[in-house]
Each structure stands twice: as structure tokens, then as C-alpha cells.
């Protein structure tokens, strides 16, 4: 076998996770190629759009711990590039005060000494105008949270990667990945060889991993991204210091979130953290609007200053965990059954069980953008064989086997 290599590493997928991985590899003096199947920038995956929420408010300690460094890495990129990528607004968290989800977020924030402000019914409207706090709901603010400028951030990290000598090739669809001591990657435009490959292809991850004999338990869903018109312009504007928000429960659903009006003048972004399963190449054929019905009731109930009919509806793809099965095609690496659902919505960060020089990051489940800098660092560490900066056991594929065993 030829040992000639074109690159030290090839990263497949130029969304936020792949772009930060390539950037981190280039900072480590690795000759790195970043491949993207679509012409950049594009709106076909999960990393497009103008804004995302950045927060430390999580039920799990490990996410809050990771976000401590992540804030620092975002600030470092801002300084390097001279570009503003983050605006502090705070994150209003509301939900049934005695519910497990609300209490877990509160406990995690307090235990990790994250600056928060607890609001009560008497002072809520004074601090948060134009929002109705439901009877029995508690409210708190993650003070350091805010808005990430997503499109700007993605372009910035790609530009910094190229300044470090990295190569980006867009409009090149990968058609084959051949494992080996040297990995061969074939695209619609050519053939490349590298010592290592990282797959960060979002909704298309399993299509690529199939070439390596691996399939992950991933489900792709289409999210309706809705914008709601202010009845009085400026009522929910970021310039009026209106915060981002997370409603942990509404009716029978969980996790409705929103950002202050900013992207479109006079329109507030409010979405439901769920959607309909879809084929990423045919997402426009998925027309389920049940999530919009939920949002209309939520807006009418909780946000009296908004017209309870979306003015703009866009779409985004989430890729999360669907079934507790990881299998090597034609082999016996089975960890569970296809009938058992996994609800954890945690990332998958790991090396291929048969080819250690193939690394993947997947299953970011619609909450991974803010973690881009730290995901890039961790995937870079896996490529280089370094000890990961954080415990990756919540993100390894063997956790599916652990869950199955514990259920028996």
C-alpha cells in the first residue's frame, strides 16, 4: 500500500463542528483539508442562520463545565479575528417550579457558582416585561448567557483556519471513504489521502460512515424556525435588554426557546426543540406543522406583545440519537435493539471502533453550536491521540451498551 499522504487530516463537513476541528488541527501544525459538499455558505444543514443561544444553564454538570472554557475560546476567537461574535443578554429560564427539569437546571447553576438571579412573582414583571409567568412556574436568569452571531462565527473560524494554512474545498461531495493506515477520501472532484479523517457531516454522517462499515443511532428531524411579529415595535428587542429564554415545560411538551428580536426588525425568534423525522436531501417534503400549533398556543399564553401567528418560518435540521444500536455492517458490534429509544440527546464524540484514525462528531441534537470551539478541541485531541481535556464517557458510543445493560 502506498504511504503517500496529501494531508495529515481531512475533515468532512464544514459546519461549526468541522470548521472548529479543522481550525484546531491547523493550530497544531497539522496539514488539514476541510471538505464541504455544498457551496459555502449554505442553508442545507444545521449551522446556518444568524443567531444561536449561548448558555451555561443545563441539567448536566458536564455541559456546564465544558461551557466555562467554551466562553473563553469564543472570546479568544473574537480577539484573534477582531470580530464581535457574542452579545450578553442573559437567559430567562421558566418552568414548573417543583418539576425535575427546572430544579436540575437551578441546582446545576448554583452548584457551579454560575451568576444567576432568581425571580419571584412579585418582581418578575418589573424585570421581564411583556411576559406572563404561568401559575406555579419559577423563573431565573443565567446572567452570562446571550446571543451568538452564528453565520458570522462560522465565516470567522473558516477564515482563521485558512490564515493558518488550512485548505477549504466546497462543492465537493464525498463519494467514498476507504479506511486504512492511510485513509483515502474520494470526492466528486478528486481523490485525497490523509493519516486521519474526521467526519462531522451532521445529517449526512451515517451516509459517510457506512463506507467505513459503521452506523450510528442517529435520527434527522426538521425544525420549523419561527419568527413572531411584535405588536409594539421594540417590545422584545435585544437593544432593550430583552433576554433569550427557555421554557422547560408547556402543556405536554418540553423545551420551547427564543431569542430577542434582532435578526429581523420587529420579529422575535421562538422555536420548539423538536420536529419531524426527515430525509436531509428531501427536507422540504416534510410539512408537519404540529410544532407550530404548539408555539401559537405558547405565544398567545406567555407573550402578549406578539402576534400569535408566525410571520416567517424557516427550517433547520437537527441530528440526534434515535435508537440504541451501533453496528458494524456485516459484523457483530451490536449494543441494544432497534426498538429501544435513547432520550439523552447527548453528543457522539469518538474514534471508529475498528479504525482508530477515523474520528467522528455527531448527534448534536440542536444544542451543539455553542460548543463548537470545545468540540473542535476535543476532536483534535482524539485525532492526535492526546488525553481529552474532558471526560468523554457521556459521548462515547459504548454508552449505548451501558444503557442497554442497565435496563436488563
From TrEMBL:
Its EC number is 1.5.3.1, 1.5.3.7. Residues 8-382 form the FAD dependent oxidoreductase domain. InterPro entries: FAD-dep_OxRdtase, FAD/NAD-bd_sf, MTOX. One of its GO terms (cellular component) is peroxisome. GO terms for molecular function: flavin adenine dinucleotide binding; L-pipecolate oxidase activity; sarcosine oxidase activity. It catalyses: sarcosine + O2 + H2O = formaldehyde + glycine + H2O2; L-pipecolate + O2 = L-1-piperideine-6-carboxylate + H2O2 + H(+). Its cofactor is FAD. Signal peptide: none annotated. GO terms for biological process: L-lysine catabolic process to acetyl-CoA via L-pipecolate. Keywords: FAD, Flavoprotein, Oxidoreductase. Metabolizes sarcosine, L-pipecolic acid and L-proline. Belongs to the MSOX/MTOX family. This is Peroxisomal sarcosine oxidase. It comes from Gasterosteus aculeatus aculeatus.
